[in-house]
Amino acid sequence: MTRTFIGLAAAIATAASLSAHAHGGHGGHAHGGHGHGQPHFPDAASAAAPEGVTVSDCWIRAMPNGLPSAAYFKLVNTGARDAVLIGAQADGFGRVMLHANQTVGGMASMVHADRVVVPAGGDFDFAPGGHHVMLEKPSADPVIGGKLPIVLWFEGNRAIPVECDVSAPSRMK
């Protein structure tokens, strides 16, 4: 019980601090002003998936009261070339970005990830404590037990739409 409470408290504290969080590698600008904005992607319905790439086990840790949520999943690339994830889209969120957790000098922080390489013949996990898709500025709180669609965008205007399970803030994996 204590572990869940500590994990939940850490998740809420992390999400609550995002608006004041500074990103490394972006000139020290605060999160809201680092210039990445919401990328503009073409219509997902007309985009082909990257060859050999699949997405599994997608879930979203839903945070209440308009706090940022995060999406986690596994990418598998059975193709002959590396696949490069460059962004994501999710209806109902004002900003969607790829993020990674890092620890520097004993302090954990989140940084924007411009791209994530999924090696040919390999895989890449987006998991709590590591990479995730940050879902900010929700138009409404995600409904726990429901599903939310996300579109993952790869280099070459390739896209994979995926349905993600919406889970409680206490979920750790």
A few lines on this structure:
The chain is 9% helix and 43% strand. The chain is mostly beta strands.
List the helices and strands and how they pair.
Elements lengths: L1 H15 L36 E9 L7 E9 L5 E7 L3 E12 L2 E6 L3 E3 L4 E4 L5 E7 L8 E8 L3 E10 L6
Parallel strand pairs: 1-10
Antiparallel strand pairs: 1-2, 2-7, 2-8, 3-6, 3-9, 4-5, 4-8, 9-10
Major sheet characteristics = 10 strands, mixed
Query: CATH topology, which one?
Result: Immunoglobulin-like
Can you count the helices? 1
Query: In what range is the share of β-strand residues?
Result: 35-45%
What series of H and E elements makes up the topology? HEEEEEEEEEE
- In the residues, how many domains can be counted? 1
Instruction: Categorize the overall geometry.
Output: globular
